[in-house]
Design a protein that fits this description.
The protein is an alpha/beta fold and 342 residues long. It is built from 13 helices and 12 strands. The protein has a domain of 64 residues: Ubiquitin-like (UB roll), CATH 3.10.20. The strands form 3 sheets. Strands 2-4-1-5-6-7 form a 6-stranded mixed sheet, sandwiched between helices. Strands 3-9-8 form a 3-stranded mixed sheet, with helices on both faces. Helix 1 runs parallel beside helix 7 and helix 4 packs antiparallel against helix 5. The protein binds guanosine-5'-triphosphate and magnesium ion.
């Protein structure tokens, strides 16, 4: 699962990408796109680690893509938009710091500007496709009426300058999947703040209706470069309890509609990633196709029940370890042992 980082020029996209992915060295070829894979921080995995003391601890992972700027005209994000089409969700970085030259931020205007670009991109796609479909209809060719009606619905919203992500059901309709509408993608709005500011700016229609988070990008990027022994003083000086980046990564995971289940043992404790509403049998398939094919049942205990019992054995005694079948919907935090035949 991959998130694309978008934003106007000089909003801090590279800074945020580097801080998130701990890439401190610049791109090898300036202007090339960059991909970073990160662990999704999860306190539950740390607690399970203490409980089982395994040899390995494996976190869930997600990736971030920073589009390259090659061939990009000065103020146009079209090339960047094309590169991030394949992403499952976006992080929209908004400058909320004074530029080096002293120019004040205008987060509202910047948000609208890029959002409009997303909307216009989709509008172009919808208009030309509708034109084509109507033409084919006139020529007596068989066309999908459902596609026309859904595209017409999209057209109406886009003409009203409303992003398709406000209509998640429409944006994710099967017939429309192939269009990969950019304004329909889940999006986290990330305000890139000054070093001394941790608040989300209160701007009309954005802070209230969008999925927002505030991060001090430059500060966070500096933190990852500090040697461990100096880190504590630095964090205290800026009143930083935990890295805001951990929150961004967790929020990214949620934005993608992902949950984790765990497998535990002496060799490893591990977080596995599934979409919400995944069945136990499909979850088994994430680990191994044999687990899915030969699925018999799943032995499930919730993280809360396991940790309050203190051990798997005690949880069993208390009756909180359940046997679940193929169609059980895996819940975030389930600890699962699969029973299967090969
Ligand atoms: N004060 C402050 N400056 C920042 C912050 N984040 C980035 N900057 C500065 O803003 C400038 C642009 O940052 P970049 O990360 O290169 O921004 P970008 O969006 O990747 O820029 P382009 O790739 O040119 O579009 C740099 O001089 C950064 O040091 C921040 O959180 N606070
Ligand atoms: Mg950059």
């Amino acid at each position: 699962m991959k998130l694309g980082i978008i934003g106007l020029p000089q909003s801090g996209k590279s800074t945020i990408f580097e801080a998130l992915t701990h890439h401190s060295e610049p791109a090898i070829h300036k202007g090339e796109s960059r991909l970073g894979v990160v662990n999704v921080p999860d306190m539950r995995l740390d607690i399970l680690n203490d409980m089982y003391e395994p040899q390995k601890q494996i976190f869930a992972q997600i990736s971030y893509l920073l589009p390259g700027t090659q061939g990009q005209k000065k103020d146009s994000g079209q090339s960047a938009l094309n590169q991030i089409r394949e992403c499952d969700a976006f992080i929209h970085v908004i400058r909320n710091f004074k530029t080096y030259g002293g120019q004040k931020p205008n987060p509202y205007q910047d948000f609208i500007k890029l959002n409009q670009e997303l909307i216009l991109t989709d509008l172009g796609v919808v208009e030309s496709r509708l034109e084509r479909l109507h033409l084919e209809k006139k020529q007596g060719r068989a066309i999908d009426e459902k596609e026309i009606s859904l595209l017409t619905e999209c057209l109406k919203h886009l003409e009203d300058e409303i992003s398709l992500r406000k209509f998640p059901q429409l944006a994710s309709a099967d017939v429309l999947k192939g269009y990969a509408f950019v304004s329909g993608r889940p999006m986290l709005v990330l305000f890139n703040n000054e070093d001394d500011d941790i608040s989300i700016p209160d701007i009309k229609g954005v802070s209230s209706s969008e999925n927002c988070i505030a991060v001090r990008g430059r500060l966070e990027q500096e933190i990852i470069q500090i040697p461990d022994e100096e880190k504590e003083d630095f964090l205290a000086e800026f009143h930083i309890a935990e890295s805001a980046l951990d929150r961004v990564i967790r929020r990214s995971y949620e934005l993608l509609g992902l949950i984790s289940f765990f497998t535990v043992g002496e060799d490893e404790v591990r977080a596995w990633t599934v979409k919400k509403d995944t069945t136990a049998q499909d979850a088994a398939g994430v680990i191994h196709t044999d687990f899915k094919k030969g699925f018999i049942r799943a032995e499930v205990v919730s993280f809360e029940d396991l940790t309050s019992a203190g051990s798997h054995q005690e949880a069993k005694k208390r009756g909180t370890v359940r046997l679940e079948g193929k169609t059980y919907l895996v819940q975030d935090g389930d600890i699962i042992e699969f029973r299967f035949n090969v």
